[in-house]
């Protein structure tokens, strides 16, 4: 590796480590944190941490408060509304194109995953492991639609927003106790995909995202 690529690599590692700790709840929304504490969390040099702070601020994941230091983003009503609106705009277009362009095999895979998860949820009492698996299936389907666009600009912007969405899930509502309705909402999307009906797919994904938004907005 040449000398010019090393700083960029460290920046990316620092950013990835920060978001990983954020989603693992090692860092909590609203928490104040110092650069030195981020060094301890990430195990990366102070220089790399300093370089990612402007990016984190620009993405709304971190803010610098005069006299107090850096603060992890708050989960408030404004963030919830904006994050879900962004998600809706992106995923409506993505699912419409997926309905037209996705392979039969890819759609069949989605159906198989969701039907197996639904059957498991209906057959047994929920466990943390089962709910974690269901949550991963949930997020993976949405990520699949965006990935299929093969657009790096959209993918990067969606990734930042998905971190916010997952923080909102953690703080406001989780899939716990909701595996069955979530899988059924996803299967409604998959039904439309199988029929190659973009409009129905858009309607189903919109309903699913709106249901999540309303749950997040409940105080």
TrEMBL record:
Family annotation (PROSITE patterns): HTH_GNTR
Source taxon at top rank: Bacteria
Key words, A-Z: DNA-binding, Transcription, Transcription regulation
Pfam family name, one: FCD
InterPro entries in alphabetical order: GntR_C, TF_FadR/GntR_C, Tscrpt_reg_HTH_GntR, WH-like_DNA-bd_sf, WH_DNA-bd_sf
Residue intervals of the HTH gntR-type domain: 8-75
PANTHER family: GLUCONATE OPERON TRANSCRIPTIONAL REPRESSOR, TRANSCRIPTIONAL REGULATOR, GNTR FAMILY
Protein name (database record): GntR family transcriptional regulator
